[in-house]
């Protein structure tokens, strides 16, 4: 791909971020039967590769002892009722607040580590743009046939940005986005609605009633992935597709420029350490959870697309550079919202330690000599055409 404009094919998904294929070599997402040429070739290999040298996390005082000019780090104050949907009760809008950032109110047993305020919403929307670029403008990779998708669900829809685009592209499809937080806009396509729902509770959609289920970036939110896939299987109609997008928690490099003890090198470890307390894993990609969960539930024709998503403006290739710049923008827009709950609430870091860590991270993200990337993985599979509602136990 000679320029940075989106194409009909996803950006090169399996090479290093410094290489991008021509339109021909970019190719279609790799199937399970034709695994990617470069690592990770299998979930277990991905696990080793993405796990990094060790899981040791530096103590939080490291960052304040090293010292840093934290002056450029904003403390964000978010509005707590932006974009609420009309059907919500007031209690859903009683968000919890930590250091000026808001988090979802109590819905079932759910626990989500990210903020739900305006700044977090902005980061989600930039992330959506970055991912759409990486996918060459595609909104999905499963082989959906427009006239056969009567009903689609987006689990953990966030701002609903994907669901809005999908509803526009599939005007005859009834699209439902669910989330813990009412942060979706009310001005949406007529075939789209939003529901407040905890995906970790038994789903209330009718069995065999949905043709496509989309899930994106639920890492750190789900205690029992197998149960989630079982619910999806139960809800899908025979022949319906599930598609699940996740990111590894780690920032890595192929050339050693992301040092293990740097702020970027510690990023993933901070989340993994936090998840030991919350019991909700961030290592969905390295652990191969998407494929194994779908297989266990009974899905077939499972396929995978892997992408090393550059973070920053370091790639020479213009298309990857654009993706990297948006990746960095998504991260920088709300670093605090990403780490505040995990570091401060779960792990007991002081506010100062968090802010100084963020200042270090920002500086590294701006350094083009550091070639960081994050592994993204999309897995999609089909409920057998001849099947009952019930998933494998
Ligand atoms: C990182 S955001 C991703 C949002 C959206 N899928 C996207 O890609 O733009 C994760 C979303 O999942 C939601 N979430 C987390 N746990 C959930 C649960 N148990 N049930 C429903 N939604 C959940 C959060 O509220 C948040 O909006």
UniProtKB/TrEMBL annotation:
GO biological process: methylation
Superkingdom as given in the UniProt entry: Eukaryota
Low complexity bias: start-end ranges: 17-35, 43-54
Region (Disordered): 1-84
Keyword Glycosyltransferase included in the entry's annotation: no
InterPro entries recorded: SAM-dependent_MTases_sf
Biased composition (Polar residues): 1-16
Entries under PANTHER family matching the protein: ABC TRANSMEMBRANE TYPE-1 DOMAIN-CONTAINING PROTEIN-RELATED (PTHR43591:SF10), METHYLTRANSFERASE (PTHR43591)
This protein's name: S-adenosyl-L-methionine-dependent methyltransferase
Organism: Chaetomium strumarium
UniProt lineage: Eukaryota, Fungi, Dikarya, Ascomycota, Pezizomycotina
